[in-house]
Amino acid sequence: MNNQERFTEPLQQELAALEAQHLRRRLQVIEAFLPGGKVRVEGRELLNLSSNDYLGLAGDGRLIQAAQEAAARWGAGSTASRLIVGTLALHEQVEAAVADLKGLPRAVLFNTGYMANIGVIAGLMAKGDVILSDKLNHASIIDGMRLSEATFYRYPHRDLERLEGLLRKYAGARRLLIVTDSVFSVDGDLAPLRELAALKERYGAWLMIDEAHATGVFGDKGSGLAEALRVTGGIDIHMGTFSKALGSFGAYVAGAAPLIELLHNRARSFIYSTALPPPVLGAMQAAVKIVRQDPAPRTYLLEQARLFRLRLQDAGLDTLDSQTQIIPVLVGDNSLSLEFARRLRQAGLMAVAIRPPTVPPGGARLRFSLSAAHRPEDLALAAATIIRIGREMGLAGTASVRPGARQMIP
Ligand SMILES: *Cc1c(COP(=O)(O)O)cnc(C)c1O
């Protein structure tokens, strides 16, 4: 074995082990974005049911123009981190627009949702503090907890009783934080935000929510699930992203002024990284304005999602407790989920099999995400195709009725 092989051999072995468990992932190149929420992949046109571009804003002319104008006026880069000379008037404008949209005093931008979560959690929580996190929270929340060196517990998904037990036990901690996704990214179900706000009040904890999949989709102003459930004031830390429904890139944290000012001083992912560049800020600003002014796309999206879900459920497919534009179909077995995705692709549908470690072992599934860019006729055909292939694979008709599924959106 030469030196090069001594390096690559163990890497090859690790890849082969992943392959053997049907867990190896590969990058899929998108050759073009096409109208109607479609993509071209390997020369074929597919309906894209895996994108987070829930409102179809990523290709919207208004965002593109705003990005171009910001680049023309300010340049391609921000030239420094925020605390040095990277805070442009544009950052302040977008932060003010986000705070206003959220109905909260202040906001701060982060370069990504991942960086927001690790920056906030590790910036506020330290050794000896306690964090209680929903089992299905996004990986960036988990990484933030690890970085923080606080003690953390992952309570069973949406299990308020178990959470209350932990709150009772740790009520004396210096800082006690409950953290949850508002819309769960893989199951497409909702966190019980009202109940969580009541619990945090009772036990003197803090509550942080991640609205990555809810921003732009829920609420009268499109600000997220907290707004839709009218519980904004009961939540201390509001995090969300611009990278999904808002069509571009970046993230925000909103809340009380001292929270935001402390994050400027404590969030290392904010402090030690170059500020978001002007074209992205331009797109962000345009997206906030569009979302505020036009509820029609999110209304259409949620109505289409309801129809899509009902069609799959009526055929006996298991969509878990989805109540959103994210609709899973539970498969269970890793290789079966890959086979399902492969057959869907042959039939013109782009949907990705989600496997462990993103979901628990035995929880492999297809995850469909809808967009306001999708046409009703394409979605109807997609649902029919999913049902047909699901039947061929013996998946339809196996779903148990879920008494836990309840409608939480008024
Ligand atoms: C996508 C996502 C993130 C990360 O956001 P990025 O801007 O893509 O880094 C964080 N939390 C949740 C729940 C997400 O779905």
3D structure, described in words:
With 410 residues, this protein is an alpha/beta fold. It has 2 domains: 23-52 and 296-392, Aspartate Aminotransferase, domain 1; 61-293, Aspartate Aminotransferase, domain 2. It has 15 helices and 14 strands. It has helices at residues 3-20, 61-74, 82-86, 89-102, 113-124, 139-148, 160-170, 193-202, 225-228, 257-266, 268-271, 278-293, 296-314, 334-346, 376-392; strands spanning 32-34, 38-41, 44-48, 106-110, 130-134, 151-155, 176-181, 206-210, 237-241, 251-255, 326-332, 349-350, 352-354, 364-369. It has a 7-stranded mixed sheet, with helices on both faces. Helix 4 (89-102) packs parallel to helix 12 (278-293), helix 5 runs parallel beside helix 6 and helix 13 (296-314) runs parallel beside helix 15 (376-392). The protein is globular. It starts with a helix and ends in an 18-residue tail after the last helix. 48% of the residues are buried. The mean pLDDT is 95. Pyridoxal-5'-phosphate is lined by residues 112-114, 117, 138, 140, 181, 185, 210, 212-213, 241, 243, 251.
Give short descriptive properties of this protein:
410 residues, alpha/beta, Aspartate Aminotransferase, domain 1, Aspartate Aminotransferase, domain 2, 2 domains, seven-stranded mixed beta sheet, four-stranded mixed beta sheet, 15 helices, 14 strands, globular
